[in-house]
Amino acid sequence: MTFLELAKMRYSVRSFKDQPIQEEHMNRILEAGHVAPTACNNQPQKIYIVKSEDARKKLASVCRCTFDAPVILAVCYDRTRDWKNKLQPGYESGETDAAIVCTHMMLEAAELGVGSCWVGYFNSEKVSEVLGLPENVTVSALLPMGYPADDAKPLPLHSQYRELSDIISVI
C-alpha cells in the first residue's frame, strides 16, 4: 500500500471491539510518535496511555468523545521543552509538534488495523486534572484507539474533499 492509499483509507473510528491492543502494535504506534519531527528536535511531546478502566472512566467524565475505546492516548506537550520563535513573540511549537506526533501515530495505527479518532472536543484543564498531569504539560489531543468494531465505518463526509484548486495557490 502506498502512503497516499493509507492516508485515504484511514478514517475516524468511533466504535471499537472490547479487545486490548496487541503489545507489538502499541509499541509500533508509540515508536511512530517517538520518531515524529518536532521544531528544532526539542521533542516536547508527552504521551499518556490511558488504559485502566478507572482512568478511562475519569476521562470519560470530562470528555464525551472517548467512544469506550480500550485505550486512549492523551497526546500532550511539555511547555518547558517546546521551541519558542524569537522572530514571532508568543509563538511556541508545542501544539504543532503534538499534532505531528498524533498524525504519525494515527497513520501507523491504521497500517496495523488499529482504529483511532482524533479528539479535540475537551477542556484541557479538566482533562489534566482528572489524569493528574503536571502543571507544565498541556493536553493537545485525545486519541481513542482500538480494533474497529465489526460495524465501524467512516462517516459520510469522510471521502468528500474541497477541490485541490480551492486550497492551493501558487505565488
Features:
6 helices; NADH Oxidase; alpha+beta; single chain
Please give a quick description of this structure:
The chain is of the alpha+beta class and 171 residues long.
Compile the SSE list and pairings.
Blueprint: H1 3-9, H2 23-34, E1 45-50, H3 53-60, E2 71-78, H4 94-111, E3 115-116, H5 124-131, E4 137-146, H6 164-167
Antiparallel strand pairs: 1-2, 2-4, 3-4
CA gyration radius, whole angstroms:
17 Å
CATH H level, superfamily name: NADH Oxidase
Q: Spans with pLDDT under 50 lasting ≥5 residues?
A: none
Tally the beta strands: 4
SS-based structural class? alpha+beta
Oligomer: single chain
Strand order, largest beta sheet: 1-2-4-3
Beta-sheet strand percentage? 15-25%
Task: Please describe the biggest sheet, giving its number of strands, its sense, and whether it closes into a barrel.
Answer: 4 strands, antiparallel
CATH architecture: 3-Layer(aba) Sandwich
Q: Tell me, what's the shape?
A: globular
- CATH class division: Alpha Beta
Determine the N-to-C terminus distance.
Answer: 33 Å
User: Would you list the SSEs in sequence order as H and E?
Assistant: HHEHEHEHEH
Mean pLDDT across every amino acid position:
97
What is the helix fraction of residues, given as a range?
25-40%
How many separate domains? Answer: 1
